[in-house]
Amino acid sequence: MELRCEDCAGCCVDWRALAPDAAGSDRAGDRPPLDDVYGLAPLTRDEVAAFLEDGLGDALVPRLFEPAERDATASIDGVEVAAADDRPVFVIGLRKPPKPVAPIGTDEPRWLDACVFLDPTTLQCRIHGGDLYPRTCSTYPGHNLELDAETECERVEDAGGGDRLLDDEPPTDLPAPAFGPQALGTTVFAYPDPDDLDGVVDRIRTDSLTADDRARFVGAAVGSRPGSLSVDRDRMAGARERAREADSWAGRAIRAWTERAAGDGDPASLGVDSRNRLIRELEDDAGAPGTPGWD
Ligand code: SF4
Ligand code: SF4
What we know:
Elements: E1 2-3, H1 45-53, E2 60-64, E3 72-76, E4 79-84, E5 87-94, E6 98-101, E7 110-113, E8 118-119, E9 124-125, H2 135-138, H3 142-146, H4 152-158, E10 165-167, E11 189-190, H5 200-205, H6 211-223, H7 233-245, H8 249-260, H9 272-284
Antiparallel strand pairs: 1-10, 2-5, 3-4, 4-5, 5-11, 6-7, 8-9
This protein binds iron/sulfur cluster (2 copies).
Residues 12, 41, 94, 115, 117-118, 125, 127, 134, 137 line the site of one iron/sulfur cluster.
C-alpha cells in the first residue's frame, strides 16, 4: 500500500460539498448511522480511554445506527435503533467541526467539516504517529483494499484530486476490522441504560448533542468489557464524569470554529493572513500539537 496524502485529507474532511458525485457516504451499508457525519473513524475502547486520560474527552462523539433487517432493536424516542439484546449499539469517533480548509488538491479554503485533529494549514494530522493516533487512521485504507472495496483515495482521484493510491496491495499486518462480532466491547459498544437516552436521537440527527450526552456514551464505552455486553459500572461512572468535565483546546476550538463558520462548502473568505492567525490562535497557541508540513 502506498499513498500520496499531501494536500488531500480526503479521509479527514467532509468534502461532499466540493464533489457530491465523487464523494461517498457513511449512509451506505446495512446499518446507516443516525448522524450525517462523513468518514467517522471508530475508536477502540482503549483509544477512547487514552483520549480521556489526556483530557480530550470533549473531542469524542457517539454514533448510533438504524437497524439492519434481522437486527435486534431498541426504541429511543419512539425510533428503533440497532441493538444487542435491548441495548442500543454505538461506536465512538472524533468530532468534526467546520474548519477553513482546502482539501483534495483544491486551492481555495472553504468551510467544511474536518476532524478536530486536522491542522487546517498543513492538512496534516496533529496526532499522526503519536500515542493517540487511532488505529483506524493508521491502517487506512488497508481494510478496504483487502475487501476490494472503494477507498476514499480513489474517490479523491475520481474528483480530480490527483493520483493518491499509488500501490493497492493491502498490508499483511492489518488488525481485526472495526466491525463484526469480534468488535463487541472493543469498538462496538452497547449502551446499558436506554431509558436514560430521551431526546438523544433528535439531538444526534440535528447535530446538537450536549456535553452530557457525549459523556454518557464515552463512559459506557470505557466501562465496556471486550467480547461482552456487560459494563463495569464504576469504570463507566468515572469515565463519564471525566468526559463531562473535559475542557481541552480541542473542545474549545470546536466551539470557536462552529461559531465562526459560514454555510457548508461556502468560501472561507478570511484572507490568508487572518486565516493563518485564526488557526494559530484557536489551535496551535491553545495547545494543539504542531505538524511538520510536507517539505
Ligand atoms: S485523527 Fe488524524 S488521520 Fe484520523 S481523521 Fe483525524 S486528522 Fe485524520
Ligand atoms: S484519502 Fe487516501 S490519499 Fe487522501 S489523505 Fe486519506 S489516505 Fe491519504
